[in-house]
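Please think about what follows:
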Amino acid sequence: SLENTGKIPPLSSKEKFKVVTRGAFDFTEYPWYGLLSAINQANDAEPAYGQGWKSYGKRYVTSFADGTIENFITSAILPSILHQDPRFYHSEAGGFTHKAGYAVSRIFLTRTDSGSTTFNYSEVVGSALSATISTYSYHPRSTVLRSPSGPRYIPSDRTLANTASVWGSQVGFDTVVIVIKEFWPDIHRKLSHKSGESSRH
């Protein structure tokens, strides 16, 4: 994300892939997917995985793969093909409502490499494409789970409904991340200011 940058040069395709690679494998991603997998385990999401540590591992790998595929498609592959800028530009002014509205709108609007505003095909279409790829390639097929109470048939998760659910979750998460990015500089300045005041007393 960029703040108070003015006119800056566009990223090359190589730079777009480099930025995404650095972010996708940042150390903060690993505990996030761990938490997400724990929530899915507790909710018995995609029940064909079952329960237990082995099942948790499967959910972790699936979550990590879902996020990584989406990051590369929405922020590197499609932006390179469509000449769109995957970076987030902070709004220059406005109050809370303006900033929040601007941040949410960046899911649907983005900059081109030439600096103009355009529909964010990379995000909207890219997240749908990544959800389709992941759902129909490695998400669970139908299976029968054995239990003390008898066999339990689990339908396949490779469905249009599950694809739409994954797509919606990805777009929703990306929206939350963008809103956090928009307000983080303000939060950071306030925290730094308070820290500076505390050190002087």
User: Anything to note?
Assistant: DSSP finds six helices and five strands in the chain. The beta strands are 84-85, 109-112, 117-119, 143-145, 152-154.
